[in-house]
């Protein structure tokens, strides 16, 4: 089975669709980052209500599902009507994610078992009918130069050990 996500959205009156497949190169291997900053994001939006680096989408190998993780607590995404101030939310077909005023629909999700780390994905939120909040997972950023792991709070400050920018750092489970 091919692991892929198909997203659809309208921005500035233009309807767009994008299918992302497992193994496709991204700026941050293992995730697909969405936001306004073309230097940090794989899917770039022009709407000023979207943060420069807003969210990232990844494949959770333990749960065998796609998820979206908030990277901007001050401008949290809305996933299927629920604010994701911290942590992550499962994504599935029909899910809707709001980044500011931009609504992204997950048109299709196909996910099979993966034996190796994911290098790309993109998706929108999952329709969760559960009353339990999504529990945040412990993730960090692996420095591309010294390979040490830092918390997400270091994203804008850089690696505390070698000073390298963490904008291109890989997300890792702690």
Q: What does this protein structure show overall?
A:
The protein has strands spanning 4-11, 14-21, 31-35, 43-44, 55-60, 65-70, 78-79, 82-83, 88-90, 96-99, 102-110, 139-142, 149-150, 170-173. The chain has 174 residues and is mainly β. The protein has a 6-stranded antiparallel beta sheet with strand order 2-1-11-10-7-8, with no helix packed on it. A 5-stranded mixed beta sheet has the order 4-3-5-6-9, with no helix packed on it. A hairpin with a 2-residue loop joins strand 7 and strand 8 (82-83). Residues 113-137 have low confidence and may be disordered.
Strand order of the largest sheet: 2-1-11-10-7-8
Beta content comes to 35-45%
Number of strands: 14
Give the overall average pLDDT: 78
Secondary structure tally, helices:
0
* Ends distance: 29 Å
User: Low-confidence spans: pLDDT under 50, at least 5 residues?
Assistant: 113-137
Structural class: mainly beta
Largest sheet: 6 strands, antiparallel
How is the topology of this model organized?
Layout: E1 4-11, E2 14-21, E3 31-35, E4 43-44, E5 55-60, E6 65-70, E7 78-79, E8 82-83, E9 88-90, E10 96-99, E11 102-110, E12 139-142, E13 149-150, E14 170-173
Parallel strand pairs: 3-4
Antiparallel strand pairs: 1-2, 1-11, 3-5, 5-6, 6-9, 7-8, 7-10, 10-11, 12-13, 12-14
């Amino acid at each position: 089975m091919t692991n892929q996500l198909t997203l659809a959205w309208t921005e500035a009156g233009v309807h767009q669709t994008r299918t992302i497949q497992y193994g496709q190169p991204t700026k941050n291997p293992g995730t697909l980052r969405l936001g306004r900053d073309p230097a940090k994001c794989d899917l770039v939006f022009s709407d000023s209500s979207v943060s420069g680096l807003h969210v990232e989408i990844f494949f959770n190998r333990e749960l065998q599902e796609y998820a979206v993780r908030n990277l901007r607590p001050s401008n949290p995404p809305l996933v299927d009507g629920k604010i994701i101030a911290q942590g992550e939310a499962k994504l599935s077909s029909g899910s809707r994610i709001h980044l500011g005023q931009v609504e992204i629909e997950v048109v299709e999700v196909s996910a099979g078992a993966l034996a190796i780390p994911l290098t790309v994905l993109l998706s929108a939120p999952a329709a969760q009918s559960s009353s339990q909040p999504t529990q945040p997972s412990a993730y960090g950023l692996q420095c591309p130069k010294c390979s040490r792991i830092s918390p997400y709070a270091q994203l804008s400050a850089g690696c505390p050990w070698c000073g390298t920018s963490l904008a291109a750092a890989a997300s890792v489970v702690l």
